[in-house]
C-alpha cells in the first residue's frame, strides 16, 4: 500500500551518498570556476612553501606529524630516510591535502559572495 514515489529511506544510506572531498572540490570548481581553482592553487603553493621552509629550517616534521595525530605508519611511509628537502616537504604537503581541500570548500563560497557584494563579480544569472 506504498505509493511508488515515496519510498522509505534508511538514514544510514544517506551517509554513503555523501560525496567525498575530491567530488566536493570538483563541484566547487564547476560552480565557482576560476575563483575556486585559483584559491586552491594559491593555498597549495603556500602550503608547499611553508612545509619546504619548515623542513629546510631543520624542524623535526616526524615529531610534529605524530603530535598532530597522524599514524606512525603513514608518517614513516611518507618520510623515507635520505630524501631531499623538497621531496620531504612535498610528502608532508600531500599528507595535509584533506586540510587544504576543506579550507577551499569552506572559503570559496564566502569569497565569491564577498566579491559579488563589492561588485567585482556579477551575481549568478537567474534561471528562467
SSE topology:
Layout lengths: L10 H7 L3 H12 L1 H23 L4 H7 L4 H7 L6 H11 L1 H21 L11
Helix pairs in contact: 2-3, 2-7, 3-6, 3-7
Description:
- The chain has 128 residues and is mostly helical.
- The protein has one domain (22-116).
- The chain is built from 7 helices and no strands.
- The protein has helices spanning 11-17, 21-32, 34-56, 61-67, 72-78, 85-95, 97-117.
- Helix 2 (21-32) runs parallel beside helix 7 and helix 3 packs across helix 6.
- The longest helix has 23 residues, at 34-56.
- Residues 1-15 have low confidence and may be disordered.
Compact overview of the structure:
By secondary structure, the protein is mostly helical. It has one domain. Helix content is 69%, strand content 0%.
Which range does the strand content fall in?
Answer: under 5%
Number of helices: 7
Strand tally, please?
0
Segments where pLDDT lies below 50 for 5+ residues? 1-15
Mean pLDDT: 79
Structural class: mainly alpha
The value of Rg in angstroms is: 21 Å
> What order do the helices and strands follow?
HHHHHHH
Q: Main sheet, how many strands, which sense, barrel?
A: none
